[in-house]
């Protein structure tokens, strides 16, 4: 069972447009609303693959009620923590050429009591969890050290933690030694304070995060593939480039695939790559089902193309 923790969940509304013209009245060809937030997306991907998951998250206002209802409709058990503020609504505009424009709301400000209630909900629900996936930005009111406290409490209870966050929250949590961290290239560059121009640069940055406390690093390099750097060695995984319909939630689908496949080694890396490649071909933040996956198209190995320039260098 994979327990997910999403401190700042959302309702994700996606609109598909021919093009984005500022100042004009735009008519969407299609639209949809999905439960959102990185941990929520991991739960959705686990469920789509037929696995078991529980989603811990704060819920507030009518938006929170709708989010909880949508999760229930998808067969996801939501361990909602009531909060006074309203759950945020994020907007994604998808143009025909694949260009995405995202507007992410800040979300509610949690009180210290609400923050503690969230930690307690994780403790109560974590018994029997194979992994605890802690994902996304922290809402207002939660200090950067909140994830570090969650990791420390989980470890004292014997749990394994996968952390997907960025900035000060990631930096603060490394000292608590999360079992896996999952940055993308930009987040990895920010964590080490230098740009990444090649795959080799990303490997060195991942190794640095391990030296600072991460047990393993699963790094998404976008179209260039994914890296897994852990105590037993490093692996590189890649799948052929596909037509990108939406990359919203693709990294979350990758993490779900990785954890569901054991969370370590090349087999788990291959599952991560397959899930990410499938997710980008689906609309909005739809999570892939087994029929969407193409595992035969994935290649993994210890031979890493260190000199390969990144398609999108991380600043």
Automatic annotation (TrEMBL):
Its EC number is 2.7.1.56. Pfam families: PfkB (PF00294). Belongs to the carbohydrate kinase PfkB family. One of its GO terms (molecular function) is 1-phosphofructokinase activity. It comes from Streptomyces lichenis. It is an enzyme of class 2 (transferase). Transmembrane segments: none annotated. NCBIfam families: 1-PFK, pfkB. InterPro entries: 1-PFruKinase (IPR022463), PfkB_dom (IPR011611), Ribokinase-like (IPR029056), Tagatose/fructose_Pkinase (IPR017583). Residues 22-290 form the Carbohydrate kinase PfkB domain. This is 1-phosphofructokinase. Gene3D superfamilies: 3.40.1190.20. Keywords: ATP-binding, Kinase, Nucleotide-binding, Transferase. The lineage of its organism: Bacteria, Bacillati, Actinomycetota, Actinomycetes, Kitasatosporales.
């Amino acid at each position: 069972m994979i327990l997910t923790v999403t401190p700042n969940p959302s309702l994700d509304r996606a609109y598909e447009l021919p093009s984005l013209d500022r100042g004009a009245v735009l008519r969407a060809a299609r639209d949809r609303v999905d439960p959102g937030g990185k941990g929520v997306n991991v739960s959705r991907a686990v469920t789509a693959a037929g696995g078991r998951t529980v989603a811990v998250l704060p819920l507030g206002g009518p938006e929170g009620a709708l989010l909880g209802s949508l999760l229930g409709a998808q067969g996801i058990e939501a361990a909602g923590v009531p909060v006074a503020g309203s759950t945020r609504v994020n907007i994604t505009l998808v143009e025909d050429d694949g260009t995405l424009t995202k507007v992410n709301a800040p979300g509610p400000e949690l009180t210290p009591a609400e923050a503690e209630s969230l930690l307690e909900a994780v403790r109560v629900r974590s018994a029997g969890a194979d992994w605890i996936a802690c994902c996304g930005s922290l809402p207002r009111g939660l200090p950067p050290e909140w994830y570090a406290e969650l990791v420390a409490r989980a470890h004292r209870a014997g749990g394994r933690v996968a952390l997907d966050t960025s900035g000060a929250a990631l930096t603060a949590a490394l000292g608590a030694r999360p079992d896996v961290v999952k940055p993308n290239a930009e987040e990895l560059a920010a964590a080490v304070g230098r740009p990444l121009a090649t795959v080799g640069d990303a490997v060195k940055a991942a190794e640095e995060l391990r030296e600072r406390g991460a047990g393993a690093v699963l790094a998404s390099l976008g179209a260039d593939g994914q890296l897994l750097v852990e105590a037993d060695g490093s692996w590189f995984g890649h799948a052929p480039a596909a037509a990108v319909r939406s990359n919203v939630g693709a990294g979350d689908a990758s993490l779900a695939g990785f954890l569901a496949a054991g969370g370590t080694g090349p087999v788990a890396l291959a599952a991560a790559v397959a899930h990410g490649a499938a997710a980008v071909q689906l609309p909005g933040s739809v999570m892939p089902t087994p029929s969407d996956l193409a595992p035969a198209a994935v290649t993994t190995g210890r031979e890493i193309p260190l000199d390969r320039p990144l398609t999108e260098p991380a600043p």
